[in-house]
Design goal:
Elements (H helix, E strand, L loop, with lengths): L11 H22 L2 H8 L3 H7 L3 H19 L1
Helix pairs in contact: 1-2, 1-4, 2-3
């Protein structure tokens, strides 16, 4: 996953990077094995950016489900 260190923490690009990071990290480690710190590292963004967009891990994974549905809809 490419780092997006130049992205503003509140930008759509940083949210996209976080969702991509949690998608790939959760494939590797599952829900229990994925932490907010893991997602921050994988996205190349500071942990504050992850918490800017998502209050907690549950909210992050709920957004991931919505994101995956949108990807699936786009593929059909």
């Amino acid at each position: 996953m490419a780092a997006r260190k130049g992205a503003h923490h509140g930008s759509a690009a940083s949210k996209q990077a976080i969702l991509e990071a949690v998608l790939f990290r959760s494939i590797e480690a599952g829900y229990e094995g994925t932490t907010m710190v893991d997602v921050a590292r994988a996205s190349g963004l500071p942990i504050g950016s992850v918490y800017w967009h998502f209050q907690n891990k549950e909210q992050l994974f709920a957004a991931l489900l919505d994101y995956c549905v949108e990807i699936w809809k786009g593929a059909n």
